[in-house]
Amino acid sequence: MSRSDRGLRRLAAGTLLVAFPGTTAPAWVLRELELGLGGVTLFGFNVADAEQLKTLTAELRGAAGEPVISLDEEGGDVTRLAYHVGSPYPGNAALGAVDDVELTRQVYRAIGSELAACGINLDMAPDADVNSEADNPVIGTRAFGNEAALVSRHTVAAVQGLQSVRVAACVKHFPGHGATRVDSHLSVPVVDVTPELLRARELAPFRAAIEAGTKSIMTAHVAVPFLTGDAPATLSPAALTELLRGELGYDGVVVSDALDMQAIVDSVGLAGGSALSLAAGTDLLCLGPLPTYDDVRQVIDGIVAAVDDGSLPLSRLEQAADRVDALRAWFGSRTHELAEQNGIGLHAARRAVQLTGTPAPLVEPLVIEVDTPPTIAVGDVPWGVGPWLPEAEILRVEPATGDVPGLLAKATGRSLVVVVKDAHRNAASRELVSALVAARPDLTVIEMGLPIWRPADVTYLATYGAARPNAQAAVELLTR
Length: 480
Prior knowledge:
By secondary structure, the chain is an alpha/beta fold. Helices cover 41% and strands 11% of the residues. Helix 5 (92-98) packs across helix 15 (344-352), helix 6 (101-118) packs parallel to helix 7 and helix 15 packs across helix 18.
């Protein structure tokens, strides 16, 4: 179909997934959907409850038939449906620890069922990164593990679970974000690996997901020197066209990671990054939560200008439109609408939690939750054991300013429970816990991140995540 038939501005707008504040759709979003906008990405601030979300998505559909309506629902620490209370599903690290692919399939089918019932048709999950770097600041418990084979088989199960209820999976972050020590929300991480290692480790889960029929794949704002040079993969034809499309043979929808992240805006800007990403091989551009309507219009104008100056072939926009149209047709065959309330989240969390030692009966328990700043991907999602230990006194403590003598005095004659998240990544947390253990070797430590560091000779529980069922499963073991 020719440029005049498709309409250049409509083609440009059709590549965008925009965001907006609030729990109702602004007039400009509805108007742009009528004019061909690709769709929206929703965040925690867009979601009050399931009924509100269903009303919102129905309003969006009323403007444009079947736009892409997406969000990040990974389960575990990264949730949008349950952003204000915490996810009812454990995340990937817990599922990888259990290593039962049928369980993973069931968990993701349940997540997909809830999404479908609320009108969501694309889930920016699962995370298929192989978390080979223990100090990774952005992946961690979002990964199924640090072994390519394990991550591959659970990525396939997650894709199958979501897509069994006609919610498109978006496997991320291609070509792999697991070997980084930098958060791409803040700058461009470098994955400095050989071609052989990239293919054997990072690419293995994506290859498996492609074979399993994933409907979309998300790019990573990471540089792989031998492949992309200094540029992030999101802007790299070598990564997206030559490797993903050519070598791996993927012909589904490629979605960019949020383009308002510092890795993009600090280097080429939002509009410039949008045009470059499309030229590299992306089909849908996730703009992230920060851009305003003025920014969106500037992005559309920038894409149109790139076509006019020849830096972005019109055929690339038409190819993207065809892929997105095919995805929308697949959405349209959806038959499942009812959420599955089957308790699979708690069942999975109970199987994942690991206990070392024998907990003593709790006596007037004092729980010290060592505060851990949330990552940008996670956001300020509630966590902790308080809801399942109503008889306990809960103290949330900053690790660097923790008053050890005062805490020990308060715990005199009482059971002491210390809750941490990713203590291996925070020296102050380790120092605080070690000081408490030295004085109270009878205390219990609950690690709600990755159990990489642990104090010796104490009762220790590893939950592999900080979602609600992870906390409940831990408390059940303490109080049984």
